[in-house]
């Protein structure tokens, strides 16, 4: 089955990576990138120790008491997992890969890839990202996991199609051997408008230095990490003026990014429920979902688990934050330790 997933992704994949930042002048690179004229060159190596938590900060210490480290309460998680089906959900940026200056260079380490692979050998595992599904696959390159891109609006999940979800959004994908997958895309009707919005955003922000607009298929990211502070208001004004022409879309905010999304009742939380349902794990008493994520959009999934009183929502953060998560991990390096321990336990308990 894994080979089949690989072949299907081969067929679906399009567009090579062509935008790489200049080592010495990423602002210049980012402002030019929309013209697609930059020659490929090396990505800047990420800082291996970003954002160390401030353990002297009383606010962080008291936050940690409310959201203890998932590594510290690991045995408790295992106790809860005994006799239950563990299902693992992972965000990508800031969780499996560190936050870096250039969104096109957010690579995950081989160690992380290997840990995710090991986890997926023992437990059903899905990656739910704001990026397009194809792009996440390009980064992760694992055929052992399910993928949900565009904040859950583009899911490649188990073959089961559910009557409770509108048929028109679920299509079957078959490989040569007849193995089946389900592609679930509840925002398909928005695709033409998304292309229009992309064109308008590119034109209207063309003169603002440092903007990078990322096509995430069912949503759009307008990155401003490299925009001068003085230019930010102009950028936001332009984005809002485009958005005003499309009342069926709305704006959300992430890490140095404005995101334009179709206004449908569908987010990472819905994607989590959809995947649990299609995996056949709707019964909450026998299933233990673990969701690890770092961004505001992951809060939708945390809330679902909290409202179901089910599983472990884990936030990745090195500073105190308002969250619905139960536990925390500082950064992707702690996520790695957590996944390694989980995989080890999976190996011994199965
Ligand atoms: O849901 P996620 O997988 O966490 O994706 C959320 C957004 O992540 C990416 O942007 C963020 O990470 C970049 C690379 O580290 C960083 O440069 C940027 O400032 C962050 O906002 C991705 O590029 C976006 O499209 C995703 O929506």
Automatic annotation (TrEMBL):
Cofactor or coenzyme needed: a divalent metal cation
Keyword Protein biosynthesis: no
EC number: 3.1.3.12
Protein keywords: Hydrolase, Stress response
The keyword Hydrolase appears for this protein: yes
Pathway where it operates: Glycan biosynthesis; trehalose biosynthesis
Molecular function in Gene Ontology: trehalose-phosphatase activity
A Pfam family per the record: Trehalose_PPase
InterPro entries attached to this UniProt entry: HAD-like_sf, HAD-SF_hydro_IIB, HAD_sf, OTSB-like, Trehalose_PPase
Top-rank lineage group of the source organism: Eukaryota
Coiled coil start-end: none
Function: Removes the phosphate from trehalose 6-phosphate to produce free trehalose. Trehalose accumulation in plant may improve abiotic stress tolerance.
Family note: Belongs to the trehalose phosphatase family.
Name the record gives this protein: Trehalose 6-phosphate phosphatase
Organism lineage string: Eukaryota, Viridiplantae, Streptophyta, Embryophyta, Tracheophyta
